[in-house]
Automatic annotation (TrEMBL):
UniProt region (Disordered), positions on chain: 278-302
Gene3D superfamilies listed in its UniProt record: Zn peptidases
Keyword Phosphoprotein: no
Protein name per its UniProtKB record: M14 family zinc carboxypeptidase
Sorted UniProt keywords: Carboxypeptidase, Hydrolase, Metalloprotease, Protease, Signal, Zinc
Recorded superkingdom: Bacteria
Family classification: Belongs to the peptidase M14 family.
Active site residues of this protein: E391 (proton donor/acceptor)
GO molecular function: carboxypeptidase activity
């Protein structure tokens, strides 16, 4: 047993807890006798933090006086179990950490985990361990950070794990993530232990060796590092969300730890794009399931979405605690009850559920509460990846609910002990990784191309929110948000490639059907020169073979062409005087360009009221803003005021009949004067190039 101490030496010298700040969170635990499904849904809808659902009682954590007032006004009777939960777990955390320090000095036995750990890691431990993995296994582990840091500026680390990891971009990927919710400490432990598990068991003939040969693991142990550090350091042990205090404003650590803000933040598992704003999420900033101010308003979510957009993830597991479930989409009632890949999705769920016998397994809406804009919805509706949420380390209540004594992490990972005998997260991950590599569950593009050429698959899509009221006094509506997938591989010396990808036929958000979509497939020289552009339409389980960028003996001439065809004027709905509101309008155009690059611009020649809609001698107080997007160019910049010549969209190569959507936004302030009649403006659209 002691020989494995080498694995943990130097990983986590900083196991001591951070000294709590001046302000401490106060979390009160209460018990309700209400246990009906309707009552639980009502409590969730009120934004309360339901932490235990039993046959005879329900436990709710109240994070400050606002929560207590909400519960008091709800009419539900309750009794206080623990007035102040903070510090209630010290009796087991401190001995565990002391034992971990003895383990690292080689004077205490290791556990049966791959690393032998006996105590929860801190954020410092986790980040140091990820870096050590990349240093120890440079040919198998690649360290990366998400494209955006956390709200408080912390890097969000992850690793890719595979044989010849530097050249593993074409392999099918399995995504394993933890700590969307800060207090769910076991999820980081499970994720890191599985990384070590694969590497330590990477021997010929073993399952780990086969998986790393044909697939790639992408692991992000801590999606929400700000919240995790506050929870793990016991400054706010029961914190669930990130540190967002006010929409659009970047807080400081002092803001996040202030007693007045203890119950504020955004739930990172309610902030993805599809179905944002729907049931099981709240607009109340103090609610435990607060969704944020807009889809992907939080940098942690934007970083995860960017990772998915650039990675061919075919199966994803988003770890949570503690409710003894294995969940899949649909997670909310406004999704299709039967999804487009229902049979395959359900078969995979049941296959994985065999690792967790006795745990309810199914769609959230069947075996759990409702939740909108979850990680599963992003994985499935944006990419066609099969997403799952295991709710692990169940069976605890009160302060231990989300992170029980560490022995339970050991037992639930391995499926050992009395409580979790046969219930193995390790087995779940191995089976999910195996499923991710199976071609029948995704799509495969094979073929030939000159060595060194770069192949890029891209697709720009729109993901719909839930139907909700965006502006006070206006009817509920669904809004579409752009999402741009772009994945690239380099063809090896053999000139042959095998690229495992998600299907281009994307699942509908509204019925059991697939949307008829295709990838844009580009073959480019090492210097970026586009040699060939085509499309690829492919379904799940299909294999396509293409010979790309292959020279032949036939030629032809393409005349220089720049063509812009507008398809009508954009029209705003009637402006309402005295009401602050932003109005939307759009028009469409087709672009043909044979140039090496092209730019679409819009301009207003009016020298007096440039960029403002006019009604005779009257002009709107606020400028007209414009943006544009297309499948080939992707999503352009955010809407900007229209000037004398304002660039909207850029193409990096030739396109034919690329459908462009030009979106306009007009803000009207509550005090802006409006004149009876029609406000309008004639604008000039220009398609130009610097590389004809």
């Amino acid at each position: 047993m002691f020989q494995r101490s080498k694995l943990v030496a130097g990983l986590a010298a900083a196991t001591a807890l951070f000294a709590p700040g001046v302000a401490h969170a106060k979390t009160t635990l209460v018990e309700l006798k209400e246990t009906s499904h309707a009552a639980l849904h009502h409590l969730e809808a009120l934004g309360l933090d339901v932490t235990y659902e039993g046959e005879q009682r329900t436990e709710v954590m109240l994070h400050g006086p606002e929560d207590r007032q909400i519960l008091d006004e709800s009419g539900y009777a309750y009794k206080v179990l623990t007035e102040d939960l903070e510090g209630a777990n010290d009796h087991y955390l401190e001995p565990e950490e002391a034992r971990q320090q003895r383990v690292e000095r080689g004077i205490a036995p290791l556990s049966t985990l791959p690393t032998g750990r006996v105590a929860y890691r801190t954020l410092t431990d986790i980040n140091a361990e990820l870096q050590q993995l990349a240093t120890t296994y440079p040919d198998k582990v690649k360290l990366f950070t998400l494209s955006e840091p956390s709200l408080l500026g912390k890097p969000i680390y992850g690793v890719e794990v595979s044989h010849d990891v530097a050249n593993a971009g074409a392999k099918p990927s399995f995504l394993l993530s933890g700590v969307h919710h800060a207090r769910e400490w076991p999820t980081a432990e499970f994720t890191l232990e599985f990384v070590w598990d694969l590497l330590l068991n990477d021997k010929p003939g073993d399952d780990a060796n086969a998986l790393l040969s044909k697939g790639k693991l992408i692991a992000v142990p801590v999606v929400n590092p700000d919240g995790y550090e506050l929870s793990r350091s016991l400054q706010n042990e029961q914190k669930r969300k990130n540190c967002r205090i006010t929409a659009g404003a970047t807080p400081t650590l002092a803001d996040c730890t202030a007693a007045a803000n203890v119950n504020r933040g955004v739930d990172n598992n309610r902030n993805y794009i599809p179905f944002w704003g729907g049931p099981g999420s709240s607009s109340n900033a103090t609610a435990s399931n607060h969704r944020g101010s807009a889809p992907a308003s939080e940098p942690e979510n934007r970083g995860m979405i960017d990772l998915l957009n650039k990675s061919n993830v075919t199966v994803a597991i988003n770890n949570h605690t503690p409710d003894q479930r294995l969940l899949r989409a649909p997670s909310s009632s406004n999704e299709p009850e039967v999804v487009a890949d229902e049979v395959v999705y359900e078969e995979l769920l049941q296959r994985l559920a065999k690792n967790l016998p006795g745990w309810p397994a199914g769609p959230w809406t069947d075996v759990y509460y409702e939740a909108s804009s979850t990680a599963e919805q992003q994985a499935y509706y944006a990419y066609g990846a099969f997403g799952f949420t295991p709710e692990a380390t169940p069976g605890f209540s009160a302060p231990q609910t989300f992170h029980p004594p560490y022995q339970n992490v050991i037992d639930n990972y391995l499926g050992t002990g009395t409580r979790y005998a046969g219930q193995t997260m390790r087995g779940l991950y191995y089976d999910a990784f195996e499923a991710a590599t199976e071609a029948k569950l995704h799509s495969v593009l094979t073929g030939t191309a000159p060595a060194g050429t770069k192949l890029t698959l891209s697709k720009s899509t729109l993901l719909d929110s839930s139907s909700l009221v965006w502006e006070t006094g206006q009817p509920a509506q669904v809004r579409a948000f752009p999402n741009a997938i772009a994945q690239t591989i380099t063809v090896g010396a053999s000139g042959k490639f095998e690229w495992h990808i998600n299907p281009s036929l994307r699942a509908s958000q509204y019925d059991a059907a697939h949307l008829d979509e295709a990838y844009d497939l580009v073959c480019a020289a090492p210097d970026g020169t586009v040699l060939e552009r085509t499309t690829l339409k492919i379904a799940r389980g299909q294999m396509a073979n293409r010979s790309l960028c292959t020279a032949g003996g036939v030629g032809g001439t393409v005349p220089a062409t720049l063509s812009l065809t507008l398809k009508g004027a954009a029209a705003f709905p009637p402006f309402v005087p005295g009401v602050a509101q932003e109005y939307d309008a759009s028009t469409h155009a087709d672009v043909i360009s044979t140039a090496g690059d092209a730019t679409l611009s819009v301009g207003d020649a009016d020298p007096v009221n440039t960029g403002k809609l006019v009604n005779g001698a009257f002009a709107l107080a606020q400028p007209l803003r414009a943006a544009a997007s297309s499948p080939a160019a992707g999503a352009g910049a955010a809407p900007v005021p229209v000037g004398a010549s304002t660039p909207l969209l850029t193409w990096s190569g030739p396109v034919s009949n690329d459908p462009v959507t030009v979106a306009f936004k007009q803000a009207i302030g509550a005090g802006d004067p409006l004149r009876t009649g029609t406000y309008s403006k004639t604008l000039t659209f220009t398609l130009s190039t610097t590389n004809p």
